[in-house]
Amino acid sequence: MSKYEKVVLHILLCAILFSACAHPAPGGFRGMMWGQENSSFPDLVYDSTDPSHGGIKFYTKKDENLHIGNFVAQKIVYGFWHDKLCVVGVFVDGNVNWEGLKLAAFEKFGSQSDSHLDSFYWSNDTTIATLDRVVHDRGVLWLRSKEIAKQQDMYDRSKAKEGL
After folding, report:
1. Cα separation of 125 and 109, whole Å?
2. From CA 136, how far away is CA 118, in angstroms rounded?
3. pTM score > 0.85 for this model?
């Protein structure tokens, strides 16, 4: 291989690596991607509306498989803001399921040194994750779109300015 070919190959490899780093894989949950329209999921069942950020509509899925790794979720909810997926909540009941959810979160997002605590936080390029033990035998993992969280913050700020 000539020196010229090596330089071209090196440049191409750098471009590919930079492209992969500059465009991280989209986040989400079980094949549902952040920002995806709720109309693309025909098996959603309306659950409730949270008034935060002008209204986040929560849905469950018909016939949802609640088994995740070594535990069974009590409920999984999908939140849509302006009809776009922005948050997922995985609720568990019972100590065995709490420990299973915690283990799954540690495997996905990384373990934490204070693993005996009941509240954890992670953040990556696409997702903000919080894991909380609500009461002794109940817990919830919230996964939020980082990009939509920024949009919600801007929405809240603009609404606050309108109120003054």
Report:
1. 12
2. 9
3. no
Query: What number of CA atoms fall less than 13 Å from residue 157's CA on the CB side?
Result: 6
116: phi then psi, degrees, rounded to nearest 5 = -85, -10
How is the chain classified by DSSP, letter by letter? Answer: --HHHHHHHHHHHHHHHHHHHHSPPP-EETTEETT-BGGG-TTEEEEEEE-GGG-EEEEEETT---EETTEE-SEEEEEEETTEEEEEEEEEESHHHHHHHHHHHHHHH---TTTTSSEEEEE-SSEEEEEEEEETTEEEEEEEEHHHHHHHHHHHHHHHHHT-
pLDDT for the residue numbered 118: 86
Mean pLDDT by runs of 10 across the 164 residues of the chain is 45 34 60 95 95 96 92 96 97 94 91 79 95 89 97 94 79
